[in-house]
Each structure stands twice: as C-alpha cells, then as structure tokens.
Amino acid sequence: MSDTSGSPTATTPPPGCPAHADAVHMGGLEYQQTPSQMYRTMRREHGAVAPVLLDGGVPAWLVLGYPEVSYVTSHDELFARDSRRWNQWPNIPPDWPLLPYVGYQPSVLFAEREEHQRRAGVITQALEGVDQFELARECQLIAETLIAGFSGSGQAELMSMYAHALPARGVLWMCGMPPGTVDTEQLVDDLRISLDASEGDDPVAAYGRVGERIMRLVQEKRERPGPDVTSRMILDPAGLTDEEIVQDLISVIAAAQQPTANWICNTLRLLLTDERFAVNVSGGRVSVGDALNEVLWLDTPTQNFIGRWAVRDTQLGGRLIREGDCLVLGLAAANTDPQIWPESHVGAENSAHLSFSNGEHRCPYPAPLLADVMARTAVETLMEHLPDIVLGVKSEDLTWRPSIWMRGLTSLPVRFTPSAH
Hints:
By secondary structure, the chain is of the alpha+beta class. The protein has one domain (24-415): CATH 1.10.630.10.
C-alpha cells in the first residue's frame, strides 16, 4: 500500500489514474433498472474496457468484453486479487461504502498463488463431500416448510419469505448448523442483514454476530466433528487455523446465500412474466432448467465484481492499465457481449457464461453445482405446490434493487389459490 503525502482527494484523482473526463459514474436510476442499456452505451463509447467512477468519484476500470474478462481472470500474474496493491488507498475515506468488498481480509477471496491454492483446495474438498441428493432432499424440506408458512393466505412476497431464506438455511445445513433452532434462525437473519441490509438494519453489527457464531461453530466441530463442510475443513491435512476457517466459511456462506437468492427470484420472475414458459412450466423440469440458465446469461445475480488489481503497467482492450489500478469485472456485460451473441440470441443450452467467474478465483468446484441444486429445488418445489401462482402486481411495476453489484428484485409479490394445511 503506497503512502503519499498531500494526496489529491477522491474526486480529483492523481495523474495517470483512469479518471478520464468522460468516465462513467457507476450508479443512478438508469443503471439500477436497465443496466443492459448502460453497458451497450458504454461499449459503444469506450470499447471493451471503460473508465468508471465508483462511490465518491474513485476511479476504476470496468471490463465489459467477454474475451477481456476471460483474459483478466485467467492471468493472475497480471491482475491479482490482493487489494493492498491498489494505488487509490490514500484517497479512500474510512467510511467508504465499498470498503467491506475491497478492504483486505485474510480470507481465500484475497489470497494469491500457493496460499490461494491451499485455501481453495480445502474448500473444494469440503464441498465435494456434500451429497447432492441429500442436499436436494433437505432443500425440498426447507422449501415445503417455508411454503407452508404462507400457502394458506393466498399471497406472499417471495423475496423475503422464500428466496432469501432457503439458500441461507441450505448452506448452514451443509456447514453443520442444526436446522430449525433459534440460533440458526438468528444467523439466517444476520446473514441477510449483513449482505442485504434494509432501512434501520445495522449490517456491521450483524456481520460481527455472524463471525462470532461461525467461530463457535468451528470450535464445536473441533470437539465433535460431523459429516459436514465445517468438519471437513477442520480435518483437512492443510491444517487451517480456526481464524482461517471462519474467514473462508463466511466467504462460502456469503457466496452461496445472496447470489443464489437472487438467482431463484430472477428465475421466478422470468417464469411468471415470459409467455415462453407459461405453457408447460408447472412441473416441467426442462423449462425450469432453461429458465435458470437463461437468467445466468441475461440477469446474472452478480452483475459486477470488484475486483482485480494490476500487478504492473499493462495493456487491456486498447487501454493502458497502470500498476495498482482497480479493475471491476463486468460479468453481466460480458455475458451479453454482442461479439459472442451477434444476433442478440442467447442459447439456453449453452453454459459458457461468466456468472461464476473464471480462472483460478472462480467459484470453487463444485459450488456452482450445489447452487444449482438449491435454486432448482426452490423453483420446482414452489411451482409444484402452488401450480396457479401469478404475479401480484403488473410485471412493469417490479423494481430492481439499487445496486450496481447484485441483480435482484426489491420484492416479488405473488397470488395463488390458498391451500389448507
């Protein structure tokens, strides 16, 4: 981390930083509701790598092109994950809203080279021990419990009552948290607050409680290991410390919870608003699979990911990237790159999207498969139990969350025939 005296402020970046006069502010209503149009405009005006301004006017590069995102994520020797390399740290205030995403933490997310391979290897081995059929059964039970909580009323708000809760409970079950306890429910709620705070919530306090509870879980499993992800991480020959396991478990849980929740909700929105799926979606597994995959291409839950940091001066997409510059991975923009879809047609059977990123720092195998089990089970179980489900508002009245990072609805109200329990 560099330390320069008399540094310029965040709104007037130092010479050589990517704060072009025509840099695009990443934010605003247009960005939130119709980001695909923003990406098209940026691609037309700036090419595959665009100069952008983050919160507070902090400069960065947004990588929009599919080949360019693939290149960045495949070349760790040029574009690394340790955020301490960033040349903008002297300009970042202590209350900067993106600090939770870019502030260095000793977790697998920011680890590099051999350390990253060691940490990611432990996670991969632990996740490979999850029985996918057992996970599907557990998620079906969770789904049925959640549906029973609102099926008698004939209406529900699926984002909060279903889509968020199911993957949180599912991933905690994988980690060995006993389902249905007050303890687990509190952790589910704290996870939601720390990742997706509502008005009046305290995400910092919630994140602190998450860390404390996961540390207790690790200590409990060290004394009494079980057939779960936490125990397998503890028993791995790599010999991670409790602190390392806590950091990496939180990374796994966070990566599984909010993106999967948005994947579920975005898929339900597609099924309920697109007439291509209306005819045969009820119980139609092929249609649900097509919808899940199409969402990963066109409404991917993580639309932008911050980031990579340039190890040295280099070229990318015709741009000079300076050592220490921040690159934001435009996963949603890359997935809709006209170079790979020249006729604007996304083939649902193609799964070469970048929604789980790419390269050494992509979601560790088999995390995408486990996320698919959770999302598919959530959507299919809901459709089977509430076959006449319809939107509770006009489709054009649905609104997206004000986030440039996650692509998710603020709410998904639905109506259906009430059922007797």
